[in-house]
Amino acid sequence: MQLSPAAACDFDPFSTEFLSDPYPFHEALREAGPVVRLDRYGIWATARHEQVVAVLSDYESYCSSAGVGLSDFRKEKPWRPPSIILEADPPLHARTHRVLMRALSPAALRDLRPVFELEAERLVDTLLQRREVDGVADIGRAYPLKVFPDAIGVRSDGRENLLPYGNMVFNAFGPPNELFRDAMSRAQEVIGWITAACERDALAANGLGRSVYAAHDAGELAYDEARLLIRSLLSAGLDTTVHGISNALFCFASFPDQWDVLRADPSIARTAFDEAMRLESPVQTFFRTTTRDVDLGGTLIGAGEKVLTFLAAANRDPRRWSDPERFDVHRRTGGHVGFGHGIHRCVGEMLSKLEGEILLAALARRVRAIELNGEPAPHLNNTLRGFESLPLVLEAA
Questions:
Q1: Considering the domain boundaries, does residue 203 fall inside one?
Q2: CA 13, 52, 174 angle in degrees (round to 5)?
Q3: What phi, psi does 267 have (nearest 5°)?
């Protein structure tokens, strides 16, 4: 096969300009070729769906244990112990993945549904009394910050540290820029609370977190591994859902005809949430590191190289999706990479979808219209895309 050199781009995917409005850059990256070279950081990147899926599918050629951010853990020490699920390869990943999948089993999620539905109805009651709300603070954050920590069994005091910790984690996947430095400004306080909150005795006896420690009791995990798995759940399972719900509300405000479709049939709320995760992907990028020489889209990439996958760009690739920039709640979303792909696909995906489904369905049953009530303010993060504020008006049905 004839290999061709990759196009060189001078984009900085971690700049304020790029993060504020990434989609024009995504289009340029896709059209530049299957693989591009980002000279600013000396890395490779792909923004097309076919190549992004190829990288995420092949864990033997593109490893996660060297870090899923710009930093190479084989060359520099990470700021925290690496995640033994997200930043691990088999056989360790297989062992920890199995434990989490058991903790987040369909039966466990079925048990959570009545509680999640009750909390969603309570929240909608409050929202409709106010009418003018912030889609981030009052909905996107309020709901997951209640039901998710409760489900895991996290203690009630100090939960205000959860989102700052997630902000630190996802900013750390980029370079040590101002976003990262700002996120780390409370690192000692936040990390101290997170570490204590992940201990067995700090978790409620009936929470999902204790089932992870049950794997330690059964000899499947060391105690420190169980604690690290709880930490991974807290860092990866909250921010993405917060942004996912907020972004879904933005989609419905931007495409009011689709809210009418959902109102007519709230049973499609899960599909609608999944479509929002495709169109406005909270997780924009993840890195992999090559373990050997690879041919990616006709470009030869040597061993030990960082490859940046643009998940959000792949989710809008016209080679894969028809009319990709339209929000369509009836779209068949199978194949989108908003939750990742391959063995490292998000283990909390079903929990996130449960939250999104239940909340959107509760809103659809009682809210006639969702309208923007001002200019949304973006939340800038080296990895995540979402809003800092999203002023909305909710019209009661």
A1: yes
A2: 30
A3: -65, -15
- H runs (alpha helix) in the chain: 16-20, 23-32, 49-57, 92-103, 106-130, 142-152, 162-171, 178-183, 187-197, 208-217, 223-236, 239-254, 256-264, 269-279, 311-314, 349-366
**Contact predicate 234/165, CB 8 Å:** yes
The separation between CA 160 and the C-alpha centre of its own chain, rounded to angstroms, equals 19
Is position 1 within any domain? no
Adjacent-strand bridge partners of 45: 36, 308
CB atoms within 10 A of CB 76: 9
Q: pLDDT tens-digit profile of 336-360?
A: 999 999 999 998 899 999 999 999 9
String of DSSP letters for 114-174: HHHHHHHHHHHHHHHHH-EEEIIIIIIIHHHHHHHHHHHT--STTGGGHHHHHHHHHHTTS
d(CA 184, CA 177): 11
Distance CA 127, CA 135 (A): 10
Q: Could you tell me the pTM of the whole model?
A: 0.95
Q: How far apart are the first and last CA of the chain?
A: 61
Q: How many domains does the chain have?
A: 1
The answer to whether residue 172 sits within a structural domain is: yes
Nearest of 223, 227, 228, 183 to residue 82 by alpha carbon: 228
Closest of 370, 330, 378, 328 to residue 124, by C-alpha: 370
- pLDDT, residue 4, reads 55
| CA dist., res. 320 & res. 334, Å (int) | 11
Six-digit token string for 296: 């990616």
Q: Which two tokens stand for residue 129?
A: 């009394």
CB 84 within 8 A of CB 228: yes
User: What CATH number corresponds to the domain at position 155?
Assistant: 1.10.630.10
Strand partners, 234: none
User: What are 284-327's pLDDT values in tens digits?
Assistant: 999 999 999 999 999 999 999 999 999 999 999 999 999 999 99
Domain that holds residue 377: 7-396
Q: How confident is the model at residue 1 (pLDDT cuts 50, 70, 90)?
A: very low
For residue 206, being part of any structural domain is answered with yes
DSSP 383: S
